[in-house]
Amino acid sequence: MSATLLDGKKLAETVRNEVRVGVAEFTKTHGRPPGLEVILVGEDPASQIYTRNKEKAAKEVGIRGKLHVLPADTSEDALLRELDRLNNDDTVDGILVQLPLPKQIREQRVLDAIRPDKDVDGFHPVNAGMLASGRPSLVPCTPRGSMRLLDLAGARLEGARAVVVGRSNIVGKPMAQLLLAANATVTMAHSRTKDLAAVCREADVLVVAVGKAELVRGDWVKPGAVVIDVGMNRIELAPAKDGEPAKTKLVGDVAFDEAKERASAITPVPGGVGPMTIACLLDNTLVAARARVAAKNG
Ligand code: NDP
């Protein structure tokens, strides 16, 4: 058996088109487009690419996207002042601070300083709490995208055994909350879980967000399971030689070639969860803009 491939690139295009329509309608009704401000502190090359992609993707759907690049030695106070300015700017609907931050800045203090109604990453404790108490408002983008992929797979979540490997605040925990809200029976596994293979083998729906290349082997997958691989790991195929850069490859947390022989559906890496994350960020910006306007109009 070979699993159905869950094409995140194609689904992300569908989501972007939905957002484009919503943004045009919002702009017509309110005389301004939704606004997304992306803040990058420092010059981390991967973060530079991510933030530029976010700004570009926003503009492509008609959102007013703006990237602020602050120097690597920016103080925590200076960043908090910038956030305060954006929090109080009525034309700004979404604020995102790219992680990781330089050492002198405490990440949690910064994330806590973003107004919850503009927190399009969904990382603020208020938004995490709303999700945990069954009243989701702004939900983290990667888990939202993963839920759309499960929907694409036609996965029956009600009553299903779901296993989420990884318990980070940005992926694993909110993913488990969304699956629980969809009436799955959810197990959260992590680095201290005993016999992870046996836990995974019970899963009708297996979501893996660990950051360890091909940790989950094919025989950990229950036959017929739906597998969502969130991991993005760059592995070296050949070292740098004679002035040529090292040959690398992006792989997931699941051994794809093995797992696809057992799963009924599986996300590839790249081209699975990754594209959905940005698409859901755009959607969150539209959701935030609509909610803010609705709140203002009482
Ligand atoms: P974190 O490092 O914050 O969390 C990793 C989690 O995996 C932790 O809960 C950790 O457990 C658990 N873990 C680590 N080692 C093992 C192990 N051997 N067995 C079982 N569990 C283990 O990572 P993130 O959640 O931020 O990201 C996870 C992966 O997803 C990364 O590869 C990242 O690049 C990718 N990612 C992809 C995105 C996308 O858009 N496609 C977006 C965000 C992330 P413990 O809590 O016990 O330490």
UniProtKB/TrEMBL annotation:
<keyword id="KW-0658">Purine biosynthesis</keyword>
<keyword id="KW-0486">Methionine biosynthesis</keyword>
<keyword id="KW-0554">One-carbon metabolism</keyword>
<feature type="domain" description="Tetrahydrofolate dehydrogenase/cyclohydrolase catalytic">
    <location>
        <begin position="6"/>
        <end position="121"/>
    </location>
</feature>
<protein>
    <recommendedName>
        <fullName>Bifunctional protein FolD</fullName>
        <ecNumber>1.5.1.5</ecNumber>
        <ecNumber>3.5.4.9</ecNumber>
    </recommendedName>
</protein>
<dbReference type="GO" id="GO:0005829">
    <property type="term" value="C:cytosol"/>
</dbReference>
<keyword id="KW-0028">Amino-acid biosynthesis</keyword>
<dbReference type="InterPro" id="IPR020631">
    <property type="entry name" value="THF_DH/CycHdrlase_NAD-bd_dom"/>
</dbReference>
<comment type="function">
    <text>Catalyzes the oxidation of 5,10-methylenetetrahydrofolate to 5,10-methenyltetrahydrofolate and then the hydrolysis of 5,10-methenyltetrahydrofolate to 10-formyltetrahydrofolate.</text>
</comment>
<keyword id="KW-0368">Histidine biosynthesis</keyword>
<dbReference type="InterPro" id="IPR020630">
    <property type="entry name" value="THF_DH/CycHdrlase_cat_dom"/>
</dbReference>
<dbReference type="InterPro" id="IPR020867">
    <property type="entry name" value="THF_DH/CycHdrlase_CS"/>
</dbReference>
<dbReference type="InterPro" id="IPR046346">
    <property type="entry name" value="Aminoacid_DH-like_N_sf"/>
</dbReference>
<dbReference type="GO" id="GO:0004488">
    <property type="term" value="F:methylenetetrahydrofolate dehydrogenase (NADP+) activity"/>
</dbReference>
<keyword id="KW-0521">NADP</keyword>
<comment type="pathway">
    <text>One-carbon metabolism; tetrahydrofolate interconversion.</text>
</comment>
<keyword id="KW-0378">Hydrolase</keyword>
<dbReference type="GO" id="GO:0000105">
    <property type="term" value="P:L-histidine biosynthetic process"/>
</dbReference>
<dbReference type="InterPro" id="IPR000672">
    <property type="entry name" value="THF_DH/CycHdrlase"/>
</dbReference>
<feature type="binding site">
    <location>
        <begin position="166"/>
        <end position="168"/>
    </location>
    <ligand>
        <name>NADP(+)</name>
    </ligand>
</feature>
<dbReference type="GO" id="GO:0035999">
    <property type="term" value="P:tetrahydrofolate interconversion"/>
</dbReference>
<dbReference type="GO" id="GO:0004477">
    <property type="term" value="F:methenyltetrahydrofolate cyclohydrolase activity"/>
</dbReference>
<comment type="similarity">
    <text>Belongs to the tetrahydrofolate dehydrogenase/cyclohydrolase family.</text>
</comment>
<keyword id="KW-0511">Multifunctional enzyme</keyword>
<keyword id="KW-0560">Oxidoreductase</keyword>
<dbReference type="InterPro" id="IPR036291">
    <property type="entry name" value="NAD(P)-bd_dom_sf"/>
</dbReference>
<dbReference type="GO" id="GO:0009086">
    <property type="term" value="P:methionine biosynthetic process"/>
</dbReference>
<feature type="domain" description="Tetrahydrofolate dehydrogenase/cyclohydrolase NAD(P)-binding">
    <location>
        <begin position="140"/>
        <end position="291"/>
    </location>
</feature>
<dbReference type="Pfam" id="PF02882">
    <property type="entry name" value="THF_DHG_CYH_C"/>
</dbReference>
<comment type="subunit">
    <text>Homodimer.</text>
</comment>
<dbReference type="GO" id="GO:0006164">
    <property type="term" value="P:purine nucleotide biosynthetic process"/>
</dbReference>
<dbReference type="Pfam" id="PF00763">
    <property type="entry name" value="THF_DHG_CYH"/>
</dbReference>
